[in-house]
Amino acid sequence: MIKIVTIFLIAMMILAIFGRLRMPRLPGARKLTKLPRVRKCKACGAPIPGKGPCVCEKQD
User: Fold this and answer.
1) Superkingdom, according to UniProt (predicted)?
2) What distance in Å separates the CA atoms of residue 48 and residue 38, rounded to the nearest whole number?
3) Which residue of 33, 39, 53, 54 is 20 to 30 Å from 13, comparing CA positions?
4) pLDDT tens-digit map of 10-58
5) How far is it, in rounded angstroms, from Cα 54 to Cα 43?
6) Is 50 left (phi over 0), alpha (psi -120 to 50) or beta?
7) How many CB atoms lie under 10 A from the CB of residue 39?
8) Burial code of 15-36, b = ≥16 C-beta within 10 A, e = fewer?
């Protein structure tokens, strides 16, 4: 049983090494995955989804 687990872990380490060689990390790659900042209302501070006005401005 220990032999099987050891062989499995060695195989996983080899796959990880080849994966890093094939696809190295780029320094600017993490910047592309960030989400844009959410717009916030200046009056109440609530997040504004979409392009419309804030909920507090719609109330009459």
Assistant:
1) Bacteria
2) 7
3) 33
4) 999 999 988 877 776 666 555 556 777 888 888 888 888 888 888 787 6
5) 9
6) left
7) 13
8) eeeeeeeeeeeeeeeeeeeeee
